[in-house]
Every structure is written in structure tokens, then in C-alpha cells.
Amino acid sequence: MLRGIKAATLDVDIVLENEKDREYLIETMKKLGYRDLDYRLAYIEKKDGTPKMLQGEKVRFDFFLHKVITSDFSEKMKKRADETHEFENLILKAAHPTDIAIMKSATDREKDDHDIILICDKKMLDWNIMLYEIEEQFRLGNERAIFDLGYKLEKLTNIKAIIVPKEILDRIVEFHNNNVEEREKKR
């Protein structure tokens, strides 16, 4: 929504850097009438990166801490979040469309698949950033994020919803096979 990917949204994902800020924002929004929402209404299982959630009349907020399900919000992702929006004393930075696609690949929600398709259709996805971030997520210990991304891209390609250059899919699979599987053997 903030980056012009789509006109409206039913949920807003916010990644915060520390628990204190997350709790402050949640408590402030509760005073405005938002109420707690059980994560199981949107996510199949609770994982480390599962958000705390609030529901309002028309919109839901998902408050993540450092990571979105399996994908860390890396330092480079923070730097790429260069579009700033100010709402009185609240400052939001919109993630780069490629980073949005990476984070949305970690979910099983159909609407997130649709958002990835929109990002690709609008030619907002940067394959070089994606390849860099795959290596970064691996460095951060998030092998699952690489698997989720590869799976999502392959799924959307197979149903002809998006076109992923073959060399990109090949590089993701090659990276996974050469690095992730090797790390698993060492464990």
C-alpha cells in the first residue's frame, strides 16, 4: 500500500527492532480501540517469527519482531527501506518490493501469493537483490527462508502466475543444494 503496490489492504505488517517499541505501539493502538487477535486466525502454526496481532474495524495489524516468520529483516533490508511516511509522531519506512516478496514467501496465505504476483507484474522485483538476500538469510542461519522462497517462486511459476528467469530458479536451487544441505549434514 505505501509503495503503491496496491490501493488498499486488509492487514498491515510492521517489523519492529525491539520488544519495548512493539509493546508501546500495541498498547497505544489498544487505547484507540484495536483488540488482540489470535495468530491462529492467520497463521497455521506458531513459529519464532509469528507476530502479535491487533484487529480494528477494517484493518488488522501484524507486529513482527526482527523477522517475518522465517525471514530476518536484515540490515540491508533496513537500508533498502528508503521510502518514509510520517503520521504525526509515528514514522514508518516501507520495505523494498523485493524484500516484501521475500517476507511474503514465508507464509501460506493466498493473499500473500497475490501480493507477490502484483510485485512481479509491476516489474518492482529486483532479482539481484533477491539473490543477495538469499545469501544473507543463509549467513543469518535462516535456511528455511531460502527453502520457502524457492518453493513459492516455483509454485507461482508452475501455475504461470509469474515468470521467474530460469537462471534465477537454478541459482536458488544450486545455492540451496550446495550450502543448506551441506550445513544440515554437519549438524
Can you characterise this structure?
The structure is a single chain. This protein has 187 residues and is α+β, with helices and mostly antiparallel strands. The chain has one domain (11-186). The protein is globular, with a radius of gyration of 17 Å. The relative contact order is 0.12. The strands form 3 sheets. The protein has a 4-stranded mixed β-sheet with strand order 1-4-3-2, covered by helices on one side. It has a two-stranded antiparallel ribbon with strand order 5-6. Strand 7 and strand 8 (90-94) form a beta hairpin. It has helices spanning 19-31, 75-80, 97-104, 110-121, 127-139, 143-158, 166-186, and strands spanning 11-16, 35-37, 52-55, 60-65, 67-68, 71-72, 83-87, 90-94. The longest helix has 21 residues, at 166-186. It is 48% helix and 18% strand. Helix 3 packs antiparallel against helix 4 (110-121) and helix 5 runs parallel beside helix 7.
Features:
alpha+beta, four-stranded mixed beta sheet, 187 residues
Specify Rg, calculated over alpha carbons.
17 Å
Structural class: alpha+beta
What oligomeric assembly is this protein in?
A: single chain
Q: Provide the β-strand percentage band.
A: 15-25%
**Mean of the pLDDT scores?**
89
Per DSSP E runs of 2 or more residues, the count of β-strands stands at 8
Terminal CA distance: 41 Å
Number of helices: 7
The low-pLDDT segments are: none
**Biggest beta sheet attributes:** 4 strands, mixed
Instruction: Label the overall shape.
Output: globular
Percent of residues in helices comes to 40-55%
